[in-house]
Amino acid sequence: MSARYGNERVKRGIQHFFLGKGVSALAGFGAMLLVVRGLSIADFAKYSVLIALVEVFTAIAGFGLTHLILRYVPELYSKYQTKLLKKLVVTATSLRTFLLSLLLGAGWYFSDIISGWIGLSEAVLAFEIFLLVVAFRSTSHFLSQILESTLHQGIAQTAFSITAIGRYLGLLWLSHHHTINLIDVIILEAICDAFSCLFLFIGVVSTLMEKRTDEELTGGEYGKKKNEHMVRFAITAYLQHVATLPFGGNTNRLIGGAMFGEKVMANFGFAQSLYEFAKRYLPTQLLIGVIRPIVVARYSNTRDFSVAAKLCEQSLQFNLALLSGVLSILFVCGAELLFFISKGKYAGESLIILAVLILFLALETQRLILEVMAQTVERYDIMIPSNIFLSVSIVFGILGYKFIGAIAFPLANAGALVLSNFWIIKKLASLGYQYEHDWAGTISSLVILLISTSIGWILKIAGLHWVLVIVLTGLVYSALLYKFKLKFLIIFVKDLIGRKV
Question: Which residues does 332 contact at the CB level (< 8 Å), separation at least 6?
């Protein structure tokens, strides 16, 4: 494989990745606590709805350009196709910026109408200012994916770490000087995201201008074929992405803003925020910026799908092992922990929703690796039917809300994911791309969950303080993880770095 995705660069990328993510995780969690504790229930309910606008505007304005970057930047970069790489990045970035600007302009012009649709008719100003957050955060995410696709993790993670620290310190200053309100939070986030956007833009420019270490391959016929392939790929990727837009947490937030009422929406938003934090820092989602370019680059050079499928499945099993620890803590002392985190605002209803969301996360993780595999073999078309089915699940969430409340939404999403994932696996197999789920690994994670939870409940019944119960349950889980999963984790890390690279 090309030295650009060789052993040393992968190691360095992972080191930068974990260092940056560690800093941003701590600062990000601190900032989340300050927002949850500082905002009133009414303001936090509104904030929970506004957060969903980032993904919605990003998806509509995307036109498959993000997927194009994620699939072809690693291939072009590994093959030293410098001219084609620059052309792709500049064209995609310019077009996406133009489309996003048009969409945000329309959002601002019709802000009265749109804010009314999502239950924010009394917060039109907050909606309008939040469009700045959408602009900077969405663009930052796009630029970071270019850097991650070229294994320039140091630049991307530095930007996000500094932004997370700035947001935390800003909220800390606000909380010590006066009561935090919604507009304060939005303005602070816009400033931090603007800095991140500028830093990442400079990083992308410097990456494109870097000197080559090997002789560049000639473009010629390779370039023409790739251009045609890229256009078809982008169209298919956009269709499948738009097809799934009504599915998941962001749509649930928007509909919840119109249906739930402030108290229910705040509880739902709190659970959703914790779920999204856990999702962001679990190995598959956490490492996807490293795993995806490595999988694409290796497949582009070897055309061996089994290597890609194995690495993706290993990352899924890593997630399941860690999720068993999260669930054991929630099942034993979840109510006490959430009560403490939210300063007594949210606990009962949020706990039930969060537990379902964590179970849903296991299925969503498998969905993510299936998407990476479909993207790698350039067959996004097989995703479209399953994505339409996922989107229909929102109907069952709305109908179920009358009977079981807000929990109906993640339950409906989870049920749809089971069938959707099965469909994609079958379609990949029919095309000659065989993927096998590691059931033995899944069962071992379930055993770890059951043992940890059982011991945790015994300790709780014995009368120990809930903090001590969490610590001891965590130690039991860690011992079981070491016993049953250490060998697997070593193999996963070796495969990710590349044993023979």
Answer: 453, 456, 457, 459, 460, 469, 470, 473
